[in-house]
């Protein structure tokens, strides 16, 4: 328990608390602004966290994302525009409630059950991560190979609406990841003799390009000043929440569980969690006909789910170095920069940092209650921020952030190239999140394959010999079997439809 | 921001006259260094090289009275950062930490850069490799392990610690050759640095890790790995119980990963003299010695001439070893 | 800009084929059956298969009357294509001149151009651009020690 008390000391540092507060306000703002996502908030925070010690750096990311996911609900209800994609699943429902005059009840519900869902996700993280880390200490390259394979498979299977295009994105991400020195033989691939390309496609500038620059390109041609909020004053938002909790307690639990599990699955984050739990809620509701008319039930499920997904996503990120969503993909980059290489070793080497992250998660979720209340109260002012000033400033932040990652103009070049590519891909219905997963997991996948082959003297059987590796391998094969089954069925369905 | 306080002005005049370059031109520029310096590190933030560079940077900053920004230029197995140092303007405002890889990369055909591409300033550190095995390994001494390796067929034992052709790979090759074995008698499993290799060792994926002892410290302290020997002339004061190869096997083989400071070729003589003086002062400071010994890092000094000779010697040894192992580009 | 899936598919196949062809120059891994070329080749094969599937899908959509390439609605609105090009030009410009002009000058110029284009009140454009670039430089270069290029302001910083 020494580590726990050390963690308390780390978190109680006034500097850390100041960082938590400042990044919470930042996260609230970014989340509430339509077009600025929680992932983007994290990407913009990275250059700032670069020179911080590990604990405040992680605190900044945890607090900002926690707030951003909730804050996305505010413009969803007021403007029918989700602040972040995580609120998209129930934006229409929320807006319908607001128009029925139930804006207060809607925002109160969103706030309170975001806090509850968030705390649930953290609780699972606190219990599961150290247990999994103990098991993961015995993982060799075989197990890591299968984990990477499983992560890549999940990304295609559940994380995208169009599996074919999702798969293309993933393959493109993996292909981009092969640029640079190869992880086994040390040979420079696809560098065309340039020194800069030997470092590979730097991950965070690529991320800033894919998520932020492509968004700036889109909004540069959709610039309409500020936003006009719905009529109606915000009153006392906590009225009637007790009744909601009594009526829908099971929905809160179910949403939180689904959210945590989906968050923990690689490649799928808060937005998918919200969509799935909303669909589940409707499927099992006693009154599904009310969904879509401003009914609270589905919102309770989904708003719990998207916040619990945040904590869930940290489980594979911390224990295996496999991101649960695009936010933790960035977190892994930050951990590497702080020499806290994610993996079971970090639980032995720096347990106090891990506990500090847990404490900050709890703190941020509790802080969300007063800050969320304040954000709701001042929402109309926040939403009046002129976008024509904001967008150019974000562009400059992106440039500085990318530059700071490589300490050279190379980062900005990568950012621009990936920004244009991301914009083009999204225009054509290719999701960009799998690209990031491919970039993060590609090296892990290839390196562990190559080292396993060297260790086993070229025998494929060795991949199934160790017990855990065998189970993970079987699971991966099963996932692909399911995928093939679905694809075949989908294809015959398509034929029937076109015939 | 340059501040023209009276004391600053007097100090710069004094420094300029001391360097013997007082003239109208240098009066306008003040004495070197008159603005912030950049110290390029070819490896990632948080690692051993980064930590060493940051303490050197902090001590130089104190001596020079100018900020010294440590800038990580990572990737490409060190090529990117080493290239940034060599191609910087030779004005003394960009220097960098060069590492043992500069004597190895050009043999592999990764770059044209070699030790002579730099103006060497000072050698600061050298760490010898160790021989680490799993915590519950049957081999209690390095002699047990050596005997088992000799008795086993080629390729049976697997070792790791860094990438293919990296410094710890060459350490293994050198050790095997010193025992009269072939360079590939123990198979090398490339890894992404010492930490993942130590984890794979603890997980039972590989048999030996030949990284330096301080790099394996976390696993050793946790009891999941143990160090059987170090390939050095003397024991490390932080790890007194670990014998040298010479003591245990009578093999006199030592090779190490070193770190030094260098600038781009063509540094003006007065700038170089000022930098070497600052580095010497940093090296001799108590802060530096305490910092390095606490982490178990070895300290080793060489002035520019000796450092150049040291690199040249290492370059030839590495070239020969890599050629023998088939790692060098023909 | 939205292209028919068949167009995208053909493009992907061409890129992947070039990638696979290039791996022929990669050396073998000494003593191993698989070398650095294996993984890019597998990926290339995967992309080619997916590209083929996209071509099939795109041709089906084409028969239903989809255009080969359709530009977004905004391209027909006056001024919008220019705005879009201006944002890209600002980024390319930063890459080209920031090293010689320095961060503060380049960033202020970019901000001024974009503020002007996005119709910020004319009197505010310059003060806002200069003040923001100074603040960003102060925060990142002085506090965070990011080595932002100093350029022509080198002597007075």
UniProtKB/TrEMBL annotation, chain A:
Q: Which UniProt keywords apply?
A: Membrane, Transmembrane, Transmembrane helix
Any idea where the DUF112 domain is? 17-437
Tell me yes or no: is Chloroplast among this UniProt entry's keywords.
Answer: no
Q: Where is the signal peptide?
A: none
Show the stretches that span the lipid bilayer: 15-36, 43-71, 111-132, 144-161, 167-185, 197-217, 257-280, 313-337, 353-376, 388-417, 429-446, 467-485
Q: Which organism is it from?
A: Salinarimonas soli
| Taxonomic superkingdom | Bacteria
- Protein name, per record: Tripartite tricarboxylate transporter permease
> Among its keywords, does the record have Plastid?
no
Alphabetized Pfam families for the sequence: TctA
InterPro entries, alphabetically?
DUF112_TM (IPR002823)
For this protein's source organism, the top of the classification is:
Bacteria, Pseudomonadati, Pseudomonadota, Alphaproteobacteria, Hyphomicrobiales
UniProtKB/TrEMBL annotation, chain B:
Which Pfam families does the record match to this protein?
TctC
Q: Which domain of life is it from?
A: Bacteria
What the entry lists under PROSITE patterns is as follows:
TAT
Hey, which family's this protein in? Belongs to the UPF0065 (bug) family.
Name of the protein this chain belongs to: Tripartite tricarboxylate transporter substrate binding protein
UniProtKB/TrEMBL annotation, chain C:
Any Pfam family: TctB
Q: Which residues form the DUF1468 domain?
A: 7-149
Return the InterPro entries for the record.
DUF1468
* Transmembrane regions listed in the UniProt entry: 6-26, 38-60, 83-116, 123-140
Keywords of the record? Membrane, Transmembrane, Transmembrane helix
Name of the protein this chain belongs to: Tripartite tricarboxylate transporter TctB family protein
Q: Organism, per UniProt?
A: Salinarimonas soli
